[in-house]
């Protein structure tokens, strides 16, 4: 559910940024009161995008913290498995680097 929420927030933020970009293009041709109205809409769009990206950041940080807690618990419960997995990953990375 959190992954879906993050994806939705990012998609909505992209949409808001796209609309804001279009407003900026429109504002280049506008004058007077019309330009002021477009400027206000651009500022509102950027604020909304900033808020949504902040929400997405919070979700990502919460997920990272949860993953870190789970990993920490696993390593404490299974230290030798963790060492073995770490060594195996190191060997695979070493082999990939040596191939270059």
What does this structure look like?
With 100 residues, the protein is mainly alpha-helical. It has one domain (2-99). The protein is 95% helix and 0% strand. It has helices at residues 2-29, 32-77, 79-99. The model has no long low-confidence stretch (mean pLDDT 82).
List the helices and strands and how they pair.
Elements: H1 2-29, H2 32-77, H3 79-99
Task: Please describe the structure with a list of short key phrases separated by commas or semicolons.
100 residues, mainly alpha, 3 helices
Multimeric organization: single chain
Q: Radius of gyration, Cα only, in angstroms? A: 23 Å
| Number of E-type strands | 0
Strand content: under 5%
The gross shape turns out to be: elongated
Residue ranges: pLDDT <50 for 5 or more in a row? none
Structural class: mainly alpha
- Tally of individual helices: 3
Average pLDDT level: 82
Tell me roughly what share of residues is in helical segments.
over 70%
Count of distinct structural domains: 1
What string gives the helices and strands in order? HHH
Distance, first to last CA: 40 Å
Largest sheet: none
């Amino acid at each position: 559910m959190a992954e879906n929420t993050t994806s939705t927030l990012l998609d909505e933020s992209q949409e808001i940024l796209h609309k804001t970009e279009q407003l900026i293009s429109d504002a280049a041709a506008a004058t007077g009161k019309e330009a002021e109205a477009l400027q206000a809409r651009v500022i509102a769009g950027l604020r909304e995008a900033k808020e949504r990206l902040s929400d997405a950041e919070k979700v990502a940080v919460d997920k990272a913290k949860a993953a870190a807690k789970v990993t920490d618990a696993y390593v404490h419960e299974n230290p030798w498995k963790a060492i073995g997995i770490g060594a195996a990953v190191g060997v695979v990375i070493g082999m990939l680097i040596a191939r270059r």
